[in-house]
Design brief:
Layout lengths: L2 E6 L3 H17 L4 E7 L14 E5 L1 H4 L2 H12 L5 E4 L4 H8 L5 E5 L13 E3 L11 H11 L17 H4 L11 E5 L11 H14 L3 E5 L5 H10 L6 E2 L7 H10 L2 E5 L2 H8 L4 E4 L6 H4 L8 E4 L1 H4 L9 H8 L2 H6 L2 H16 L1
Parallel strand pairs: 1-2, 1-4, 2-3, 4-5, 5-6, 7-8, 7-10, 8-9, 10-11, 11-12
Helix pairs in contact: 1-5, 1-10, 7-8
Amino acid sequence: MKKILVIQNKRIGDVLIASLIASNIKTVFPESEIHYFVYDYTSGVIENHTCIDKIIQINEKKLKKIPNLIKTTSKLRKEKYDIVFDPYAKFQSRFICLFSGAKIRVGFKKKQKNPILPFYTHNVNFLKEKTHICGKSIQDRVHLVSSAFPLKNPIYDPKIYLSKSEKKQSKLKAYKKPIIMFGILGSTPQKSMPNTYVVELIDHLTSKYDINILFNYAPHQKSEAQKIYNGCKHNNAIIFDIYEDSIRGFIALMNECSLLVSNEGGAVHIAKALEKPTFTIFSPYVLKSSWASFEDGVFHNSIHLLDEKPELFSTNKSNLRKIEENPQYLYHQLTPKLILNKLNPFLKHHLS
């Protein structure tokens, strides 16, 4: 029996997408034991996964300290893994790979001026472009597996597995109208559209549609969320007092909603894994080709300023890194009017 480790020390959406490594490698080694090494705040998206046997959690700040990294690597080495996958490909994960003792180590190739240490036995190139509706980020993770182990029928759909109690959750049972979960703030300020635009969008939705809107935001964003709530005209249509601060709680809550409208981020990937319709608003610096998964213009749709006003962008991708430092100017060009031109048809289809 093969013992396999997947290292994905990154954010929630990345961990969910990386679960596809387990789904695919299980088709090659059905009897394998698969462990995932992730940051503690992300583990909820892979709990109950049918292909993941063990989740090893670590605190992000703790892992970045060299003594802790060495100690953690030593513990993982004692597990005697046969295969290690590293879709993260950063210093900590490459270090763990190098000293894991695994005979097969698969990771993404990085551009480096200095000679590369033998972190991996299989150095995999990122795909140049997407060729599947799942999007490039998902396709890259599947490609990571297929580069080392040919896949007959690749699996591209990340799944979240709900427990019986989570499926029965009914925190929103008092609300009889369709409930739209609205991701009012991105995971970072750079991924968040202007608050005034959020208010304008919500005012439009609550005026035009017979719905309730459930705010989604991170615990540390509550004061900012309160400002947005206070600025809205129709607070009676907004659900502000029902909130979950755990990933599993959020997943169960999202499962009760009709659809998601949100800034791009982990919540979008969760909603898609729950097979909920999504409308995503992309930050100007985020590559839509990488992160817009399964978009058919109907069940999943999105908007990116690059598609609406390409003249504002250079084709040089290095400029995207500059935009990330201060995306607000471009974010202000993605006006509520532009967004509603695409959002209204999406909502009419799903709310009719």
